């Protein structure tokens, strides 16, 4: 059995949905689970709904209407009869969403975020499933929240693997075409949770692990895994073969084509991961598997923008050692900061972070009580795997370097 994952770009319109069918036909997949993201930029549009719910009530209905119009246009392009069940199913989801916005009493942004954002995936999978039915490709639509159970760490939930394994293996028919949502799960109280942005890849890996799949394919709008993001770097090269270890390193440092948690469950059962183009499904793309050498062996560039560099020094010139470092990391954990780089000397400590939960000001207030603090916002973090001097010069040219850290295979550079 194969697991296929289609991202939002692949189904951004009616033609994208039809192309998904072409991919299925060309790959001759019948015993397949399809994991699907929200269509196009729906997640961004729903984030606007959430922001308006908290901050701009007068603009809430307008933002919600934009999401409805976008999906309705796709429905009208795919289906002839507005009385079909799919129109009613999509309307019911929007009614659920509107009702939540009316009755919710929780002020917790992260909780509200997860309850709203998942409608993008629920609607996209319903539309794709309905279209496949109309053209004769019978399929089973699955609510992923009934399979993947997590804790209540909203927006970045942790999977309860034992419960998830039991639910998937006891409620899944691997002999038919199945469709489900990426990115989502549910907690013990059946509230929706999310696995982090780009978490649909992780969803595919969870199912593959629990079902002992023969492979996972992520369908993208690029030929495969490239050695650099073509939006920021010229002449990006296709990587034909990558080891699990190398893929985990690239994902850890922020390679956008692979979700950081995706590789680990696949590696444990040696399930190969393919990254291919949905525009050219016949091409081999990239294969990620065990004990292979990076092919071609070339520097790999990763950039993370809008990072924050915090530099600390002791107020009394005392050493920054275990006790102080422990306090710093306790605060970083408390305020849910994602740490990307750390560097310390005898009396200083620097950390590059991603403020996912907008807790920076509270963190800085706590740090200033114990340290002298310098904060640089909106910095860029560049990581180069398998670097050489030419690659380093390419990154540093014309920029102010705030921090540089080298290991044998990796260099990280923070620039302003």
Automatic annotation (TrEMBL):
Enzyme class: transferase
Catalysed reaction equations from the record: L-aspartate + ATP = 4-phospho-L-aspartate + ADP
TM region(s), chain numbering: none
InterPro entries according to UniProt: AceGlu_kinase-like_sf (IPR036393), ACT-like_dom_sf (IPR045865), Asp/Glu/Uridylate_kinase (IPR001048), Asp_kin_monofn (IPR005260), Asp_kinase (IPR001341), AsparK_Bifunc_asparK/hSer_DH (IPR042199)
Functional pathway: Amino-acid biosynthesis; L-lysine biosynthesis via DAP pathway; (S)-tetrahydrodipicolinate from L-aspartate: step 1/4; Amino-acid biosynthesis; L-threonine biosynthesis; L-threonine from L-aspartate: step 1/5; Amino-acid biosynthesis; L-methionine biosynthesis via de novo pathway; L-homoserine from L-aspartate: step 1/3
UniProt KW Transferase keyword: yes
E.C. code: 2.7.2.4
Keywords, sorted A to Z: Amino-acid biosynthesis, ATP-binding, Kinase, Nucleotide-binding, Transferase
Molecular function GO labels: kinase activity
All copies of domain Aspartate/glutamate/uridylate kinase, residue ranges: 2-277
Entry's family note: Belongs to the aspartokinase family.
Protein name listed in UniProt: Aspartokinase
Biological source species: Snuella lapsa
